[in-house]
Structure formats: structure tokens, C-alpha cells
Amino acid sequence: MKILVLNCGSSSLKYKLFEMETNVVLAQGQADRIGLADALFQHDIRGRQSLTIETQLANHYEAVHALLAILTDKKQGILADMSEIGGIGHRVVHGGEHFRTSVAVDSAIREILESTKKLAPLHNPPNLMGIDVCTSLMPGVPQVAVFDTAFHQTMPAYAYTYAIPYRYYTQDHVRRYGFHGISHRYVACRTAEILQQKLENLKIITCHLGAGSSLCAVGGGKSLDTSMGFTPLSGLVMGTRCGDIDPALVSFLVEKEKISLTQVMEILNRESGVFGISGISPDFRDLEKEAGLGNERARLALMVYAYSVARGIGSLIPAINGLDVLAFTAGIGEHSSPMRRRICEFLSWLGIALDEDKNVDSVVEGLISRNGTKIMVLVVPTDEEKMIAQESWAVLQSNKNTPEKGCAFNHSTMKDIGGKKNEKS
Ligand code: ADP
């Protein structure tokens, strides 16, 4: 079966087409600047030249339409016909408390999804628009929603309950939800595979360190706590997001700066994090470079980030009552050996020690801790699209939801287009 994975953002569309039986990625690409005059649609199709098309895409309907046209194009495409697509897997950021697993979308599910929009007003509306567009352009092709929040639905109440009046939970569903669940689950499963151990027997903290960063404590194959909360603004310091701060800062800024709440939220989302501290960039490569040249604020931003991750790891240990493995993933986690070193130095009291011959920028996957240390440290490249495809396949094959915990798959066998590294969302 061929499964098309779609990740619809407010002005972007990322896609990946998988042939599930042969474990092959047939095509992948991305449209940016949807809704603007000069959209770009980039495609990487197996056995074809990479393609970047400058075009105008007024909305997601036009973007999906253009995608299907390319995939079925006689010269540039890879499908004889659209009917070859057996299923569509959608990334949906927020499933609220309704969705603990991936689900096939029907009209009843679509209605429940509508109610999740208010929990993720920036992300869920474009995700759901993707579902609606596919319903009209590919009627009859089954669709599956795979949620970033679902993996974390196994957290115990004492981990997800905020200490504010309980009525806000019962009335408004205010609680810790957590995000990046597709990535955390994938990385936990892959970690167990690499170590050739049962996931259920491992106590893992997965560290998804990208532009958005979060940690997850995985015990018994389940997410038992995570650093992000009601929104992806909380938890770790991030590229431009502040992470955990004193909530009283919000009213302080409103009053002192005479700005609106919306403006404060904009500052906390887009002008904070390592960008806010350094005043240079949210990109860790720029910060490493500047820090190397002696820029003190770049150095400070990197140390604040490292300390925030180490502190977060320490705070999650009670959730799993111990720690066997730390698994680093996403842009920074996979590629920045200096950042992994800084984080692990704060954790040396736990007996964590890196093997500096293994902890190099070029490491692709595997152990980077010193032989004989009690807590293993791994680099595990995440692949959220692969996870969405596999979850969707499982739902479509079995006609039921995927399990809440553990791994239903062997993740190691999926082949990429011509040896290219998978593109992450
Ligand atoms: P997202 O999917 O959340 O947009 P990614 O997982 O792609 O983010 O991570 C993006 C981040 O990874 C950027 O801040 C980028 O600077 C950082 N990054 C990528 N490669 C490196 C590297 N070699 N060294 C340090 N940081 C890196």
C-alpha cells in the first residue's frame, strides 16, 4: 500500500509518499509561502531530478492539487494514477483528551477534531484543513489522524494536573498535554531496537532538541511525563520560545511596557529563547560560531539552554524512578556534539559520561556514552513521517486504533530516496 503523509502548517505543506510493503520512500517535498504571491514547491521523487517550482498557491486546496498533479505527471511523477494512494496519514498537533491513539477519520471523528481547534488555534486549523482538502480531492481514500499529543495521554493525573483551581480542568480541559509525541515514541522504540532490548524494560528520557525542544520520560513503553505543557511554549528554553518562566512575568510586562497580552505572548513565542538571550539568532550553528569568536551573550545563551535541558532531565527522573538511557534527537540533539557535551557535563553526578571519540557532529545513530557507564547515551535520528506512515498503515490494515504504548513496528528497515537523509518536520 502507498501512504501519503501530509503535514499542513498555516502557510506550508510537507509531504512524503511511502510504499509500505517494500519500505521505500517514493517521494517527498514541501510547499512554502502558501497564500502568498510567490509560493515555492520543492519535490524529490525517486528516480527523478529534484524539482523546485515557483508558483502561486492560493490555499491548501491548490497545494494538494498541485502535489497530486506532480505525483501523477507522466514525466516527473511516480504514480500512474491517484487511485494508487491507498491511504493518507495526517499529522495533527493536538488531539486533546479525546485521542489516545491514531484514528481513522470519519465524519464523527472529524466533528470531534473540530472541538480540538480551540486547544491549538495556530496548528490544528491548518491540520484539519488538510483533512478537508483531501476529502474533497481524493474522496474515498481513507485518512488517518496521527497526533502529537496522543503518546502523552498515558501520563498519570499527578503529572498532568496544574495546581490552579480544578474547575479549569473540568470546565476547560486545562492540563499538561505535551507535544512532539510522534517523535518521542519513534525515538523510544528505535532506542530499544538499537540496544536490542524490550522497550517495556527500559527507563528512557528522550530529548527532542530542535527549534522546538522537549523531553519525555518513557517507562514501561509509555510516556509518563514530558516537559511541554498546555501549549508548546512551556518547558525547556527553545530557539525563540521562553520555556518555563515565572507566570507573574506576563502581567509585569503588560504593565511595565504598556503592551497588550497578545504582544507579550508574541515576545515569549518569537523573541525569546536563545535568540532573546543572545540577540543574535535562534540557530544554534550561528550561536556556536559566535561563542567561538568570544561573544559572551552567545555563550550565555548556549549555557542557559544546556542547563535548562539538564535540569529538565533531572526533573523527569522521578516519573520513571531511575534512568537507563538518554536518547538525543532532532536538529540540535542529532548534530551538535558540543551541546550534548554541555548537557551531559551537568549530569556527571548521575554517572553519565560521553565517549568523546563517539560524540562527534558526524555521528548518525548509536551509543555515544563511555563503555561501562551505567546510563547509556544515544543519538537517534527522529523520523516523524515514517512514524505517521506506519501508524496509518496499522490503523488501515487492522481497522482499529493503534496501541497506546510500546512499538507496533520494526523501524529500522525503511529505505530512503537514493540514500538521502529523511527530512524532518
Ligand atoms: P524543527 O523540526 O523543530 O524546526 P529541527 O529539529 O530541524 O527543528 O532543528 C532545528 C535546529 O537544529 C536549529 O536551531 C538548528 O540550528 C539546529 N541545528 C541543526 N544542525 C545543527 C548543528 N550541526 N549544530 C548545531 N545546531 C544545529
The number of distinct structural domains comes to 2
Mean pLDDT: 93
Strand percent estimate: 15-25%
User: Which segments are poorly predicted (pLDDT under 50) over 5 or more consecutive residues?
Assistant: 418-425
Number of strands: 14
What series of H and E elements makes up the topology? EEEEEHEEHHEHHHEEEHHHHHEHHEEH
Radius of gyration over all CA atoms, rounded: 21 Å
Would you tell me which CATH topology of the largest domain applies?
Answer: Nucleotidyltransferase, domain 5
At the fourth CATH level, what is the homologous superfamily of the largest domain? ATPase, nucleotide binding domain
Termini separation comes to 23 Å
Helix fraction, binned, reads 25-40%
Q: What's the CATH first level of the largest domain?
A: Alpha Beta
The kinds of small molecule bound in this structure are:
adenosine-5'-diphosphate
Architecture per CATH nomenclature, i.e. the level-2 architecture of the largest domain: 2-Layer Sandwich
For the largest sheet, list the strands in their spatial order: 5-4-3-2-1-6-8-7
Shape: globular
Number of separate helices: 14
